[in-house]
């Protein structure tokens, strides 16, 4: 059947078996191989993409469920010439070794920072209605769906905290001072 996905701002009209997962549609049909297949069972987070701005495991969702949706993959967040703040921070803090989990980590962290900013509580947040701070515990909890076989966790958390701190600096400086 015909499914239209807007992948990284480009509409893709795909002819798919209705059983095709969103992950396979992205990788095998649209040819965007930045998103990785790890477990294919919703356990590792390697396949994390953003659907209409929210992070999901693409291996657990059928492509037909996303007809008309806006999907952002790692290729849509930045490019080698124009890295996103998180992509740059992962390099800066040495947040990856083999790099297999990294696209999923960065997609997940991109949405997670927005969830934090929007005041969504997590299991470890001290209050349900106050803003949560990007502490190590908050980030570890919120990123717990993304596994790293190389165990680069301390550096992944450092990268995310770096971006959160830079955003805070920018908002404290005010929009006129933003760089
Ligand atoms: S490949 Fe989707 S969660 Fe592991
Ligand atoms: S960097 Fe190798 S799996 Fe995470």
Automatic annotation (TrEMBL):
Coiled-coil annotated residue ranges, if any: none
Annotated ranges, domain 2Fe-2S ferredoxin-type: 1-77
Alphabetical list of Pfam families matching this protein: Fer2, Fer2_2
GO molecular function, one term: oxidoreductase activity, acting on the aldehyde or oxo group of donors
Keyword Plastid listed: no
Transmembrane segments: none
Alphabetized InterPro entries for the sequence: 2Fe-2S-bd, 2Fe-2S-bd_dom_sf, 2Fe-2S_ferredoxin-like_sf, 2Fe-2S_ferredoxin-type, 2Fe2S_fd_BS, Aldehyde_Oxdr_Iron-Sulfur, Beta-grasp_dom_sf
A cellular component term, taken from the record's GO annotations: periplasmic space
tRNA processing keyword on record: no
Domain of life: Bacteria
Listed name of the protein: Aldehyde dehydrogenase
Organism: Frigidibacter mobilis
Source species taxonomy: Bacteria, Pseudomonadati, Pseudomonadota, Alphaproteobacteria, Rhodobacterales
